[in-house]
Amino acid sequence: MIPVMILCLFVARVKSSEFSVDTVVAVSVGVLDTHFSCCVFLMCHTHHQGLREDWQIAALSSSFSKSRVMSVLLSGEVFLSSKREFCSRPLNVIRSSDHTIRRYLQQVMVQCPLCLFDKAVSASDNFRRARWLMFMDSSTSVEEFFAGIHIPFGSEFLVAQWSAQRVQLSLTELYRVHYASPLQTFCIGNWTYNGGLSWSSVPFFTRRKDLKGIAIKAAVIPYNPYLTVAKYRDKKPVKYAGYLTELWNEMERRMNFTTVYVAPRDAVFGFRLDNGSWSGAVGMVVRKEVDVGISFFAYMVDRMDAVGFLPPIWNVKLMVHIKQPGMEVSSLSHILSPFVSTLWGAVLSTIIVLTVILSTTWYMNPEYKVDAGHTPYNLYESWLNVFGAFCQQGHDETPRTGASRLVYITTYLIALLLFVAYSASFMSFLAVRRRDMPFADFNGLLQDGTYKLGVLSGSARVEFFKKSNVSTLKEVYRKLIHPGAGNLPSSDVEGLQRICTREKYSYVVSDTTLRGLGRSAPCSIIGVPQAYYSITASMIISKTCPYKRIFSHHVQEIKRTGILTRIEGTAWPPKYTEILDDPPSSVTLETVTIFFIVLLIGVVTSVFVLVVEFGLHKLRQSFQWVTF
Ligand SMILES: *[C@@H]1O[C@H](CO)[C@@H](O)[C@H](O)[C@H]1NC(C)=O
Ligand SMILES: *[C@@H]1O[C@H](CO)[C@@H](O)[C@H](O)[C@H]1NC(C)=O
Ligand SMILES: *[C@@H]1O[C@H](CO)[C@@H](O)[C@H](O)[C@H]1NC(C)=O
Ligand SMILES: *[C@@H]1O[C@H](CO)[C@@H](O)[C@H](O)[C@H]1NC(C)=O
Question: Residues in domain Ionotropic glutamate receptor L-glutamate and glycine-binding (predicted)?
Answer without folding.
Answer: 225-287
